[in-house]
Amino acid sequence: MPSFSGNELTNEHIDELRDAFEKYDLDSNGTLSANEVRLALISVGYEITEAELYDLIHSVAVRDEERLDLKKFIRMMAPRMANVDSDKSLCRTFNMIDRDRDGYVTVQDVRAIMVVLGEVVTDDDIKDICQAVDMDGDGRISLRDFVGFMHSPI
């Protein structure tokens, strides 16, 4: 497997990144602008805020450079490709827990999964779990909350 900055990429990952790069090099100049990078990231399953986008670009680009060639794009994405794969798995898990498919996990959903797992928990335990996973504090657990919690250091 090719290695970039200590992160292993499969040939499939490299091909996927190359395809995304070529597809979103809209002006065909061999580099991606910040907007083109964002589109390419979304196409490989990586959602990102504008601030995160510029942090990523600046992690591999020379100071004040805001265009990436293919090599820098792959180097930027290498550590994130494993997260894309794990995020797909987390999404499937979230969808299994979200029984009514409304995009949010409720206290009842958490209680039901605990029963399925054979865990004996109190109502207070379930409330604590839900509060811990509700990363944005809006009183409900979205997919973003769930993935963010699962990626957070414990």
UniProtKB/TrEMBL annotation:
InterPro entries (UniProt xref): CALM/Myosin/TropC-like, EF-hand-dom_pair, EF_Hand_1_Ca_BS, EF_hand_dom
Pfam family, one: EF-hand_7
Biological process per Gene Ontology, one example term: centriole replication
Database matches in PROSITE patterns: EF_HAND_1, EF_HAND_2
GO MF annotation list: calcium ion binding
Gene Ontology terms: cellular component: centriole; centrosome; nucleus
EF-hand domain location: 12-47, 85-120, 121-154
Name this polypeptide is given: EF-hand domain-containing protein
Organism, as annotated: Drosophila melanogaster (Fruit fly)
Encoding gene (name): Dmel\CG13526
